[in-house]
Structures are given as structure tokens and as C-alpha cells.
Amino acid sequence: MKILVNIARVLVGVLFIFSGLIKANDPLGLSYKMQEFFDLWGMSQFNAWTLVMSVVMNAFEIIAGFALLLGWGTRLFSWLLLLLIIFFTFLTGYAYFSGQFKNCGCFGDCIPIESKTSFIKDLVLLVLIAFIFWKQQYVKPIWKTGASVMAMLLVTVFSFGIQWYTLNYLPVFDCLPFKKGNNIAEKMKMPVGSRPDSFAILFVYEKAGKQYEFTATELPADLATYNFVSRKDKLIRKGNAEPPIKGFELSGETNVDSTSFVMEQPYALLLFCENFNVKVSSWEKEFAPVYQAASKKNIPVFLITSEPGSARNNISTTSFSGLTIFKCDYTAIRTAARTNPCLYVLKKGTILEKWSKHGFSKAEKLINGLKPDSN
């Protein structure tokens, strides 16, 4: 029995550590996934707390996994893990049976798994953790108390420290479609051999207080007696794939799609500011020399934001007030930029490098080394 308990302990401990580390690499990703759940449940008031919840949950998974491996605080952590896995099983079960989520975010964006797989995984973990909880008397500490406490303190500091780093300096491992080396325009295309969604155009008409839907070939002979209401697209066949990058459309004041124009530039800088909750004054001094270096090289710089009106006001007193501003869907910006602000250097749409505000000095060096006439 003791051998079975120890095998279960190692399996559960390692899996929780791995899961926590994967998500700690990008705590914002889990935060956004939580917001999807809250929005669906009509609990959007909790969205402001999702980042804190994400950081705490990721840290707990790592800490609990190590505690289980070390056999430290077994009674406490077996209780906590049991409660947590019951909660996780509910979430993944809901995601699977509701069909609302393709991926529950259990292993972040680095290892996307389908909701059915996530649910099965949590059912297995539920059995293993329940077994450990039942036979916890067989779990013995592998180190003396002092060494275990010191190890747990280090693990705790690391669990929160790695997330502080990724939130300020971008994820250590970039698993998103906007990672370095990817061409944005290419990632906006459907994968080769994939089948897109198929839609039917429906015309909605009203007659005698009742609404009817017709396709173009089903319109009645007495159509003149009906009142036109609207036209809508109805999904009749779900595609088997979608492009890695969706909704990335850049447009200015005239609402003209300028995405292709930006992607075709020999070199371009994209400064992503989803919003201006982070004051421009906190990064103005670091970005000014980057803008000047780009101007000397005749490299265009574009400010990408979901709040174009606010953007002009916020940069009006800076040395880069003449920036071209493009609006973009906030979801696309969140995927592209895991810090606010975030700077990209593009070469004909290919991401050469990207930084948070803490890396703007590196951007200046890279720009100074670029050849203006390079193709």
C-alpha cells in the first residue's frame, strides 16, 4: 500500500508542479481564460481580480506539488489538493459538456488540450488525490523539518518571483502565435488543407406578426406581402481549423484596414498599448530615444491600441506625439502583447524582436544596427 501511495504522490506532485510552471510562464493567459468563464456566467464583476487569482493559483499548484513530493504538511495539502481538484473537475466538466470552451487553459497556451482530455485528466487526478487523502498516513517526510521548511520557502519565493518576472519582462517561453520569428501576415492565413466555416445567408421577413427565415432560393412567391426585417449569416458547417492569429486588423481614423500596409514595410515598430492604465510618464523617457532612432532610420512607428481617442491625449505632450495611431481589437492586442506597453520590431511583417518597457534600451541598440536599405 505504501508503494502505491508513493507512486500516486509522485505522479500528482510532478503533474501539479508542471502545470503550475507552465501557467506561471504566462499568468495573464490564465487570467483571460478566467474572464471567459466569468463573462459566460454573468460574473464580470470579478474580472478585475482574475490576475491576482491566476498568480495565487499558479503559485499554489507549484507549492502544493513540492509539498506533496517532500511529504511536508501532508494533512493540510491533501485537504487543499482534494478541494482544488474537485473545483478543477467541475470547471473542466462544465467546459466539456457545455461545449463553450475548446481549451480550458489547464496547461496554458504552450500545451493546449481539448476540454474532453482536460476533464478525463482531472477525473484521474481526483481518484489519485482521493487515494492519497485516504491513505495519507503512509506519506512520510523525506527531509528533516528544518530542511523541508527552507525548501518550501525557496519554492514559494520562486513561485511568485517567476510570475513577477514574466508579468514585467514578457514570458520566458513564448508559445503564442506572435512569438519572435513568426510572420504575422502568414499566421493570419488558414492552415494549408483546412476547411473554413460554411455559412448560409438567411433573410428574415415578417408577416402577420410572425417572423420567417428564407434562403435566397426559398423566397416565397408572395414576397411583396412580407416586411423585410434583417439579413443574417447562419453557420451550417463548422470548419476543422482556424488561423493562429485572429482579429488582428489595424485601422486609423478613416476606419480603412491598414494591416497589409504595415506588414509590407521594410521595417516597422509597433508600440502596443491596450489601454493607458499604465501612465505614459512611466515609460516616456525610455521610449523617446527609441522613437528618435527609428526616425533617423526613416522607420515608421505605429501605436496600436483599443483606445485611439485616449491615445492621442496621452501622448500629446511627449516627443513622440506625432505617432500614427491604429486601433485594434483588444482581444488581439492581449494576445500580441503580454505587457502594457509592448514594443515590436518588424521586418516585412516578421517579428524580429519584442520587449516590455524594461527592454526599450535594447530596442534602441537593435534599431541603430539596422540597415535602412535592407530588403
Question: Can you tag this structure with a few keywords?
Answer:
375 residues, Glutaredoxin, 3 domains, 5-stranded mixed β-sheet, 46% helix, 14% strand
Structure class = alpha/beta
Globally, the shape reads flat
How many structural domains in the coordinates?
A: 3
Regions with pLDDT < 50 over 5+ consecutive residues? none
Q: Helix and strand layout, with pairings?
A:
Elements: H1 2-24, H2 27-40, H3 50-70, H4 74-98, H5 115-134, H6 145-169, H7 184-187, E1 198-207, E2 210-214, E3 227-237, H8 259-263, E4 268-273, H9 284-296, E5 301-305, H10 308-315, E6 324-327, H11 330-336, E7 342-347, E8 350-356, H12 360-368
Helix pairs in contact: 1-3, 1-5, 2-3, 3-6, 4-5, 9-12
Question: Care to describe what's here?
Answer:
This protein has 12 helices and 8 strands. With 375 residues, the protein is an alpha/beta fold. The chain folds into 3 domains: 2-169, no CATH class; 198-237, no CATH class; 259-368, Glutaredoxin, CATH 3.40.30. The strands form 2 sheets. Strands 6-5-4-7-8 form a 5-stranded mixed beta sheet, with helices on both faces. Helix 4 packs antiparallel against helix 5.
In short:
This protein has 375 residues and is an alpha/beta fold. It contains twelve helices and eight strands.
